[in-house]
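Changelog excerpt

This revision adds worked examples to the README so contributors can see how folded entries look when concatenated. The first example is reproduced verbatim below.
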Amino acid sequence: MSLLTDLVKALPLLVVLREKVATLEAEVAALKDENASLKDDLRQAKEENRRLKDQIQEITHPVDLDEAKTQLLVILAERSMMYFESFEAMLETDRVHLEYHLQELVRQKYIALRRPSLTSIPYYSLTQKGRSYLLENHLV
């Protein structure tokens, strides 16, 4: 009978232990959710940090353009806009190199490729950044 008495005495302890286990399981689930949220916040913060570093780099270390790109900017500064074919006729360079340099200038936002309508021929024009580059380097 002593075994039965010991088991009856242990029942309240088992109930308390079950409640503690349930509480701990809930805490673990909450911590896992918080951990996932913090990891997502960290990922977003790292991306924002990278973007801001790129902006700082761009602002504090202006890019010196090579001679070909600078020549394209100077030519474009003399006109309000130019078609690709006009550049091609004016310069003695192959089409591949000309396309490359123009695309790089567009990507770096020194010039813009504009198309007023779907049926019109696209043309290049100087952006404010391109004008600033030319003025700061005394090229115009």
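The second example, added in the same revision:
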Amino acid sequence: MDTPENSPLDQPQSPEVADTPSPEPVLSSSENGEADVASMTPADSEAPPPEESSWLADNWRWIAASVLVFALLMYPIARRVMGRPAPPTATPTVALPDLLTLSLQYYQARRYPEAIAICKALLATNPNSADAYNNLGVSYAGLGQWDDAVASLQTALRINPNHQLAKNNLVWITSERQKAAPKEGTPEFFLNRS
């Protein structure tokens, strides 16, 4: 094995190789200093260097074949994965917090009809959500629909009797309902009686 001290490039050239003339063409010049191209022979001119080919150009067939084999092997696996339905428990748990948060944001922005629509959509996917019934109740209360608000909060308490927020909201809605009720002797009182 060659060591760096004894590499073939560092060895002195033999006298025969050293005395060989360089392959540079010898040009004759005309009187005006231009090179006389016509007097050059093919042996005098330098041959162009061979074109270097890239690795990709040499191996494109192998690369294409490898990609095709990979695709053919992965096709049944990909088809099985893509055809498989999502687990049934994943959909409600993912959608539940997002829709609850959205309904709360609509309620806080005083966009009560949108909050009610979101709560109803949430209850269509998960009818046993006490939080959704709570949000629905306070949204109905925001519109002044007291009966619907009380019914929604009572449903939330039927689902989860320990839901403290629903209990607090039911007390608040009951007090607001009494404040909003027309006083006896006012025109609103007589209009609402009939």
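Reviewer comment on example two: DSSP finds eight helices and no strands in the chain. The two ends are 113 Å apart (CA to CA).
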